[in-house]
Amino acid sequence: MKPLALVGGGALFALGVGLALWSLSQAFSVRSMEGEACVPGPLPERGELWSNGVLEIPLCREAQVGLLLEGTLAQGKGPNALVVEGSRVLWQGEVRGVREVWVRTTGKGTLALAFTNDLYQPPEDRNLFLRALRVEP
């Protein structure tokens, strides 16, 4: 009886470890965002990105979108900003001072404003601000 319990316990332990390893590989696998549905929501009027990050704009429809951006410089460079819809980059560039950017959306993914090159070395602090958002049909 004791050897049978030992074999059964060992098999159960091996099954548990195998399931845990399989779950771990599934949790950290890269998946495409192409199929992700856009969930409509309230549009931000303003936004502040004080460090690398993303501001989601849940528009979910075709439109002409204007973003009034402002960037603060650090080491002579402004924030690098990207406007993306799903996995498609609509605009990318450096924001020095105030800059108006217009993009055309398809409604096939969530629109987002990303800030990718934060730098903080007092007294300099590179930041990105969304001062206004305008949506036209």
Task: Give an overview in words.
This protein has 137 residues and is an alpha+beta fold. The protein contains 1 helix and 10 strands, in the order H-E-E-E-E-E-E-E-E-E-E. Strands 1-10-3-6 form a 4-stranded antiparallel beta sheet, with no helix packed on it. Strands 2-7-4-5 form a 4-stranded antiparallel beta sheet, with no helix packed on it. The longest helix has 26 residues. The chain is elongated, with a radius of gyration of 23 Å. The termini are far apart. It comes from Thermus tengchongensis. This is Serine/threonine protein kinase.
Q: How much of the polypeptide forms β-strand, as a percent range?
A: 35-45%
Rg calculated over all Cα atoms:
23 Å
Range of helix content:
10-25%
Q: What's the oligomerization state?
A: single chain
Shape call: elongated
- The low-confidence parts are none
Spatial arrangement of strands, main beta sheet: 1-10-3-6
User: What is the number of E strands?
Assistant: 10
Report on the biggest sheet: 4 strands, antiparallel
Broad structural category: alpha+beta
The N- to C-terminal Cα distance equals 76 Å
SSE ordering? HEEEEEEEEEE
Number of helices: 1
| Mean pLDDT value | 88
Protein name: Serine/threonine protein kinase
How would you summarize what this structure contains?
The protein is an alpha+beta fold and 137 residues long.
